[in-house]
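Re-run with default settings, no changes from the original entry. Doing this only to confirm the output is reproducible before filing.
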Amino acid sequence: MDYASSGVDIDAESRAVASLIDSLGSSTRAPGQKGAPVPLPGGFGGIVEFGDSSLALATDGVGSKLQLASELGRLEGVGIDCVAMNVNDLICVGAEPLAFVDYIAVPKTDPEVHSVLGVSLAEGCRAARVTLAGGETATLPGIVTELDLSGTALGWFPAGHAITGEGLEGGDVLIGLPSSGIHSNGYTLVRAVVERSGASLDEAAPFDPEHDARGIVRGRGSEGPITLGEVLLNPTRIYVDPLVDLVLACRNGDGPCESADLKAMAHITGGGLSNLLRLHETLGWHIDDPLPVPAEFGWLAEAGSIESREMHRTFNMGMGMVLAVSETVADSVTRWLAERLPGTRRIGVVKDSGRRVTHSDQSVVFEHY
């Protein structure tokens, strides 16, 4: 099985996005005006001028993970997912997230559903240290057939302090931060594998769900073994703590390195490790010591007969964020992060031998995003 055969073709999606961008035209705001665009490679967030500051914006949704959550009646984590997918993108450009707004679309109103979503969104905003500044709920019978949830996050940083990847060079060190599981992408393939396997979401996970880098968020009143559904719905990790704290500490002069040593960050979501290619036009990336892979990924690969390269392009494989830093500060930055997020460690190096991602698994090679 692969992502395309289950209904999502990443290559076709990339072409569609490129076509959209090509059709948008230029901004109506000229350089020097508030709101004027700030060019940024990678596309993890959009940046606009705002006087002595820059504002960053990101928008994303929870995707088809919502279908599993709705099927199980377990919506307690999806608001966290929604906040996480947005603020984690903002972090990649060096922005401190400030505020979040949500958009909920339903085929019919249900106060109980909205209450659970509200609690979950508030929990996500607390973890991300952002203000839940408002939102919109739309009841759209005939257009929407089931719950959809998305949002937009706003962040800021001092003008000129974007993390862009422009300063990257061969020999820079890659640091991996562990994920809490599948996070919020690839669920069209996940659902197809579950259906093919015949596994029950309500029964004990058909693998050992324990993993040093995460705890499973269980349903209220849950007893007994951790179920497959609980593992698959584990909320996306929010990386404000420790990555925003790292950026601010280095910017203020009391961190483990100078700001200039924080070269690039990538949020490992849809596209998997190929996301690294968004950060530089010519340099390559080699993962020689990948983070441990949680057991659910091994089960998905086996139950769905999914090749290793496809797994690493569709899923995070246990690594939710990658940070590239100067080689001279790699040890101190890694220690600083690992004290705050255990499991963080050095995973590889930036290469100056061509724009491609390579891996200790020689079948995992990416030359385009």
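The longest strand covers residues 96-106. The two ends are 20 Å apart (CA to CA).
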